[in-house]
Amino acid sequence: MRWTAYEILLRLESPMHCGWRKQGNLLATRPYVTGRVMWGALTARIARLSGKGNLSDSRVYQEIGKKVNEHLAYTYFYPALKKGDSFEVIWPWADEATFRLRMMGSYASTALTYPQQSVHEGSLHEIEFISPWTIDDAQPVYLLGYIFEKEECDLQWKEALPKLQFGAERNYGWGQVSTVRNPTAIKENTLFASKYKVSLDNERPMVQVEKEIEIPAHVLADNNVKVSGRVEPLVGREWRSNNSKNRFVGQHIAFNGLCYPPGSRVLSDMSFRIGDFGIWQS
């Protein structure tokens, strides 16, 4: 099965929060766009572009989402800055303190109890975000990653790109992006400035990672994976309007397994298959 790999460059136009964990009142963000977030954004936009079905029925999105996983694969997307005529990915694990100082901010808010003209108890919260501009010198922030298209794919993903919206707080305008250039088919089978090699002639794209190099995606933890790093459960919220319980938006919890997170190091040369939601498997 033949795949075509496209390098995608997006400009981050507003703050972006890709949900991770809660620490006290702080809702922390992941410092990258996960495959599940990309899948959700593509599914939502392609479903609307298709104009088919009742968009108040989650089964329409489930059908499109299944096709997205079957006919597309994708890496995680990382913040990048322009450097000369090219764009350089800023890896969050290379220097975490500097990354957070330059790339991330937070927004605090609370609800009010209007009759008493006071703060509603327990509602104070702070939302962390990736900033559309660097905090120190106001450079525009971009998102760089790759989308793989299977032969004979008819999904309108290229048309969807300029209208994607990532993460939480989208009703407030967060997570908006714009395309910097048209999707560019890669000429050499390498990703992220030749840091990783990719094979496109398999059932799914395969990525080769050399010893002591960090993984840029979640990797399913199993006995065959020689990776050094912590392990975390990877879960996501979905909409299943046909469920008897937990049928409203975000109430269905989907569990994708125990994974090594991005930034973990491989202990020997390894090959990984890019599976559903951009999760790597040995």
Short key terms for the protein model shown above:
282 residues; alpha+beta; Alpha-Beta Plaits; 7-stranded antiparallel β-sheet; 5-stranded antiparallel β-sheet; 4 helices
Characterise the protein shown here.
With 282 residues, the protein is α+β, with helices and mostly antiparallel strands. The chain has a single domain (3-281), classed as 2-Layer Sandwich (Alpha-Beta Plaits). The protein is 15% helix and 36% strand. The protein has helices spanning 35-50, 58-71, 96-103, 157-160, and strands at 3-12, 19-23, 26-29, 72-74, 78-83, 86-89, 104-109, 112-113, 118-119, 125-130, 142-150, 177-179, 184-185, 190-191, 196-199, 206-209, 219-220, 227-228, 232-238, 252-260, 265-266, 270-274, 280-281. Strands 1, 4, 5, 6, 11, 12 and 13 form a seven-stranded antiparallel β-sheet that branches. Strand 5 and strand 6 (86-89) form a beta hairpin. It is globular. The relative contact order is 0.22. The model has no long low-confidence stretch (mean pLDDT 90).
